[in-house]
Amino acid sequence: MLILRNVTRPARIYIQVPLLEFRGPGVPSGLEVLENMPAPRLFKTHLPMSLVPQGLLDQKVKVIFIARNAKDVAVYYHFYNMAKLHPDPGTWDNFLENFMDGKVSYGSWYQHMKEWWELTHTHPVLYLFYEDMKERYQVWAPEIKV
């Protein structure tokens, strides 16, 4: 059960917390869902900061950025790319070299992390690492305010 905006009912996660870049047949896009939601809105994205709509940044929205360890991302990404809808990622060694050089379909992990980190200088961003988030909930949870 998802509890948001004082509503307790079974909810489709893509409606309650849309993935900004999602688009699928017969389902409203993440951006369409977001545009039709009352404030305060909550959404998620895997986009690099440079591709997030400028209007959101102009509003100085509050951001919770959850970073993953590069090693975890590379392992997940390699096996995810083995899905039939992606090109063959090749051997682990070749893939890892491409990943480290930013020559993968989602671009450079390092650039992605850097862009979001730089946003912390101008916007209210809570920048967390997934591993810390799991281990130190009591430390970061009080920092989240609507």
Short description:
This protein is an alpha+beta fold and 146 residues long.
What does this structure look like?
- The chain is of the alpha+beta class and 146 residues long.
- It is 38% helix and 11% strand.
- It has eight helices and four strands.
- The strands form two sheets. A two-stranded antiparallel sheet has the order 1-2. Strands 3-4 form a two-stranded parallel ribbon.
- A hairpin with a 2-residue loop joins strand 1 and strand 2.
- The longest helix is centred in the middle third of the chain and has 11 residues, at 70-80.
- The model has no long low-confidence stretch (mean pLDDT 80).
Please give a handful of descriptors for the protein shown.
single chain, 146 residues, alpha+beta, Rossmann fold, 2 domains, two-stranded parallel ribbon, 4 strands, globular
- Please state how the strands of the largest beta sheet are arranged side by side: 1-2
For CATH, the homologous superfamily of the largest domain is named as P-loop containing nucleotide triphosphate hydrolases
Biggest sheet: strands, sense, closure? 2 strands, antiparallel
CATH architecture of the largest domain: 3-Layer(aba) Sandwich
For the record, the count of structural domains works out to 2
Number of helical stretches of at least 4 residues? 8
Helix content: 25-40%
Order of helices and strands, N to C?
Answer: EEHHHEHHHEHH
Distance between the termini: 20 Å
Structural class: alpha+beta
Basic shape:
globular
* Average pLDDT for all residues: 80
Please give the number of β-strands: 4
Query: What are the low-pLDDT stretches, counting only 5+ consecutive residues below 50?
Result: none
